[in-house]
Design goal:
The chain has 369 residues and is α/β, with parallel strands linked by helices. The protein has 11 helices and 14 strands. α1 (37-45) runs parallel beside α2 (75-90) and α3 runs parallel beside α5.
Length: 369
């Protein structure tokens, strides 16, 4: 099989026009949590990607740590997302949605009735921030609130929230779902023994700490089928105060083995060095590839040269590009032709305005302007 970044490729049910994915990125454009026509336009503009993975999408009204993010737990949200999937499919691309529960990386102003966020434990992410309202009602970054540990029976309820959101995703026309098991959010809060101090079946051993992740995967598989279920992971990541621990390698080897058995659509690994956190250690991706018998996506600091080298070495199957996709809707053409890329403007990443959302020009528009 050719490993050309730009050539069409099939992985089981996943049929892509190239090996380039648009990574999930929070854009916070939906005041009522319901996707609109402008969201459909935004994703369709970037549908030169073989695979689009949407921004993190809330699985429930308690899953959020950012104002204005869309969800997938009401009929209105399903109808809104249908506009997006129709628009992307019309451009010949495949689209998964990322299912998100932030856990403790939230604030009471993001929660129903101002209640405490939930997590694997009651340990606070004291130096992390949510996007919410401060004491004066002013919008902005606010310190994460004190969380409450989920009771054992509540964990299974969150598992079902993932499965219900997965069902809704398929009803909305998505080709699949990617569970957010990365970046210090709820699933990873269970994986990390420094955060997870539980004494029930979800705490202690590697198998117990992995149980929530695997139950969420299994419930989603039962709901929509393994070929439509994927997950994002950040081994060795440190975002949102997740310290490294001795069994990191063993934990991800266990997960790779268990997820291989389930024949899911793919695993999406992010190297957090591009986000100012820890890099993946040398050799880790190659070791992970030896443990995991499935489609592997990598995001984080990707460019054409790095993507091509990793593809040709057989280390990854798909290269995911994140922030650069915001300012370059025609990113595939720019990579193929070695055209310069437009730098993004981080001041415009979040918020309800359309500036910095729909108004980025393609390279041809720039040179003809």
């Amino acid at each position: 099989m050719t490993k050309d970044l730009f050539a069409p490729v099939s992985f089981g049910a996943l049929k892509l026009k190239n090996r380039i994915a648009m990574a999930p990125m929070t854009r916070a454009r939906n005041a009522d949590g319901i996707p609109k026509e402008f969201n459909a336009t935004y994703y369709a503009q970037r549908a030169d990607a073989g695979l689009i993975i949407t921004e993190g999408t809330a699985i429930s009204d308690t899953a959020m740590g950012v104002l204005y993010i869309p969800g997938l737990y009401t009929p209105q949200q399903v109808a809104g997302w249908k506009k997006v999937t129709d628009a992307v499919h019309a451009e010949g691309s495949t689209i998964f949605t990322q299912l998100w529960h932030v856990g403790r990386v939230s604030h009471t102003s993001n929660q129903p009735k101002g209640q405490a966020p939930v997590s694997a434990s009651d340990l606070r992410a004291a130096n992390s921030f949510a996007w919410g309202y401060d004491a004066e009602g002013k919008e902005g970054f606010v310190p994460a609130s004190q969380p409450r540990a989920l009771a054992t029976d509540e964990v299974s309820a969150v598992v079902q929230d993932f499965a219900h959101a997965a069902e809704n995703a398929v009803a909305a026309g998505f080709d699949g779902v990617e569970l957010h098991g990365a970046n210090g959010y709820l699933i990873e809060q269970f994986l990390n023994p420094h955060i997870n101090n539980r004494s029930d079946q979800y705490g202690g051993s590697i198998a117990n700490r992995s149980r929530f992740l695997l139950e969420a995967i299994d419930a989603s598989i039962a709901a929509i089928g393994a070929d439509k279920v994927a997950i994002r992971l950040t081994p060795y990541g440190g975002l949102h105060e997740l310290p490294h621990y001795e069994e990191i390698e063993e934990t991800y080897q266990y997960l790779a083995t268990e997820l291989s058995r389930r024949n899911i659509a793919y695993i999406h690994i992010m190297d957090q060095q591009s986000r100012g956190s820890f890099a993946l250690p040398d050799g880790f991706l190659e070791r992970f590839r030896s443990w995991y018998d499935g489609v592997l996506i990598l995001a984080g600091g990707m460019d054409r040269e790095k993507a091509t080298a990793l593809l040709e070495a057989g280390t990854i199957d798909i290269a995911a590009f994140g922030e650069v996709y915001i300012a370059n809707p025609d990113l595939v053409d720019r990579l193929r032709n070695n055209w310069p890329v437009t730098p993004p403007n981080r001041a415009l990443h979040y918020g309800l305005g359309m500036e910095g959302y729909l108004d980025w020009k393609t390279y041809q528009e720039q040179i003809n302007h």
